[in-house]
């Protein structure tokens, strides 16, 4: 089971989208071990429940991207968090929302 973030213009298009980022349980735990405060990381905290669906709208994605950029410095191995940040940046560039689905 994994938490998939799917990039799409509308929720009805998520099944056709080939743009996704998978957050496995280990990476999810690492994120939230560092992003403890929902006040500092409010958008990331929308993904706190690994088994719940969530929607992150295009207008919120620049702030999510900024949260991830701040969080990157707290990682020793930064590959996954940087990939996540690039995925969010691409969604912004494409004008899409992100839909988190627990599969």
Give a quick precis of the structure.
The protein is α+β, with helices and mostly antiparallel strands. Helix content is 37%, strand content 18%. The model has no long low-confidence stretch (mean pLDDT 94).
What does this structure look like?
There is one protein chain. The chain is of the alpha+beta class. 37% of the residues lie in helices and 18% in strands. It has three helices and four strands, in the order ββαβααβ. Strands 2-1-4-3 form a four-stranded antiparallel β-sheet. It is globular.
For the structure shown, list the relevant keywords:
single chain; 103 residues; alpha+beta; four-stranded antiparallel sheet; 3 helices; 37% helix; globular
The total beta strand count reads 4
Succession of helices and strands: EEHEHHE
Distinct helical segment count: 3
Low-confidence stretches: none
Give me the side-by-side strand order of the main sheet: 2-1-4-3
Q: How many whole angstroms does the radius of gyration measure?
A: 13 Å
Helix vs. strand class: alpha+beta
Helix content: 25-40%
Largest β-sheet summary: 4 strands, antiparallel
- Roughly what fraction of the amino acids lie in strands? 15-25%
Please give the alpha-carbon distance between the first and last residues: 6 Å
* Averaged pLDDT: 94
Taken from the alpha-carbon principal axes, the silhouette is globular
């Amino acid at each position: 089971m994994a938490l998939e973030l799917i990039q799409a213009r509308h929720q009805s298009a998520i099944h056709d989208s080939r743009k996704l980022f998978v957050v496995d349980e280990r990476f999810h735990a690492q994120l939230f071990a560092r992003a403890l405060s929902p006040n500092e990381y409010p958008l990331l905290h929308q993904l706190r429940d690994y088994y719940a669906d969530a929607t992150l709208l295009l207008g919120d994605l620049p702030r999510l991207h900024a949260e991830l950029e701040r969080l990157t410095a707290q990682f020793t191995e930064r590959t996954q968090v940087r990939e996540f940040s690039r995925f969010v940046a691409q969604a912004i560039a494409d004008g899409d929302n992100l839909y988190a689905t627990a599969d």
